[in-house]
Automatic annotation (TrEMBL):
Pfam family, one: NTP_transf_3
Protein name: Molybdenum cofactor cytidylyltransferase
Organism placement in taxonomy: Bacteria, Pseudomonadati, Bacteroidota, Cytophagia, Cytophagales
Signal peptide start and end residues: none
Gene Ontology molecular-function annotations: nucleotidyltransferase activity
Entry keyword annotation includes Signal: no
Length: 203
């Protein structure tokens, strides 16, 4: 089975307000991400929360689609950075699923153009090739998330620390990875100015 993890535990310090609750297309970013996860081929689907959890949970609590329920995992160590959410989710899924866990797709909640078709393409490429790593390639040529990591790479992911996300592993396994195009993946919603510019451009 292939699980999906939404990494959404950060405090959005530069934004000044929880990024997870910014709206686009009539939905908050966290709710959009959750619905994409549930619509995809991946199961189970988990959102890792941390900072501002009490404000964010109501957006996705008891959310179901296609008979799938979104699970929420609390990261008490969210201040350590994204790596702590990656480690927590892997350990949780391995404990729950054991050897049934083939791979995990990691995605962020602040990529508004992620859709289920993109996630499913990552899964399809993996199932066809058994590549240990399938990433998204942005318009600017950067490889990033959403990305699928097979269980063969879990040991390396579990060594991550601080605010080092999966990009370090993507670089490490660049010779073995495959990719799918995601032109709008590099849209960055880290500041109020960037968010306003984004809304004006894509309203």
């Amino acid at each position: 089975m292939i699980a999906l993890v939404i990494l959404a535990a950060g405090e959005s310090r530069r934004m000044g307000t929880p990024k997870q609750l910014l709206t686009f297309g009539g939905k908050t970013l966290i709710r959009h991400s959750a619905l994409v996860a549930l619509e995809s081929l991946c199961s189970p689907a988990i959102a890792v929360l941390g900072a501002n959890q009490e404000k964010i949970v109501p957006e996705i609590a008891h959310l179901t689609l296609n008979d799938k329920l979104l699970h929420v995992l609390n990261n008490p160590d969210w201040q350590e950075g994204m790596a702590s959410s990656i480690r927590l989710s892997i350990n949780h899924l391995v404990e729950v699923m054991g050897k049934n866990l083939e791979a995990i797709v990691f995605m962020l909640c602040d990529q508004p153009f992620v859709d289920a078709a993109l996630i499913n393409e990552l899964v399809t490429v993996y199932r066809r090739t058994r590549s240990p790593l399938v990433v998204s390639t942005y318009e600017n040529g950067v490889n990033g998330v959403p990305a699928l990591f097979s269980s063969a790479i879990f040991p390396e992911l579990l060594q991550l620390n601080g605010d080092t996300g999966a990009r370090k592993i993507i670089m490490q396994f660049s010779e073995k990875m495959l990719s799918v195009p995601f032109p709008k993946g590099n849209i960055d919603l880290d500041t109020p100015e960037a968010y306003q510019l984004f809304l004006e451009q894509y309203k």
